[in-house]
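Subject: two folds for Thursday's group meeting

Dear M.,

Sorry for the delay on this. The cluster queue was jammed most of the week, so I only got both jobs back this morning. I'm pasting them in the order they finished. Each block is the input sequence followed by the predicted structure tokens. Could you check whether the formatting survives your parser before we put anything on slides? The first protein is the one we discussed after the seminar.
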Amino acid sequence: MAPRKNPGSRVDLLQGTLDVLILQTLCWGPQHGYGIMQMIRSNSSNVLQVETGSLYPALHRLERQKWIRADWKLSDNKQRVREYRITVAGRKHLRAERGRWEQLSAAIGGILGAPVRGET
């Protein structure tokens, strides 16, 4: 996943970030892969763009862990697509991960918010 705020720059996000984003997206309702990518992009104000080469392995991993499940559906344009939905176990995992992210965010905010020596 690469942020798109500064074109040409690529930032490696912490491991597990994509999993949390996918699980959160699926809390809003069932979605196919392309829809998940679009929701992450639009809800991040176009800063986060998930590449298909990252998304589908993550979806398969989450499915193996039983945090999501997938069913084949017919899309609006009559194509077969896999529709993903979060499971009860996935919701439980997301709650735990969100707590860790909030703690990490607060810790980083504390460091970045501290005055720099020599600044007036």
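Second protein, same layout:
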Amino acid sequence: MARLPETMTAIEISVPGGPEVLKPKVLATPKPGPGQMLVRVAAAGVNRPDVAQRSGAYPPPPGASPLPGLEIAGEVVLLGDGVTRWRNGDEVCALVGRVHID
């Protein structure tokens, strides 16, 4: 497996508003905890909650990531302890309810 980068680029909502408030932000690459996996995201969908969150009308629930992108597709690159169904290299798509960002 290739070495993972220490940082990643995410899209953040800088302030509530229109599409122009979406800004790239460099963050530490998260490490998956038990039962979690890290996915190298190739594509992220924007759905109604993302648009409402961007406009300031739908704050993320407590403990949820402030980053938009509830729908993702990509490749599994790192497995947390106890993950047995998936393997590194598997292609996945998901509706993610919670994204863990340290």
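Two things I noticed about the second structure. Strands lie at 7-13, 22-28, 37-45, 71-79, 91-95. The longest helix spans residues 48-55.

Cheers,
T.
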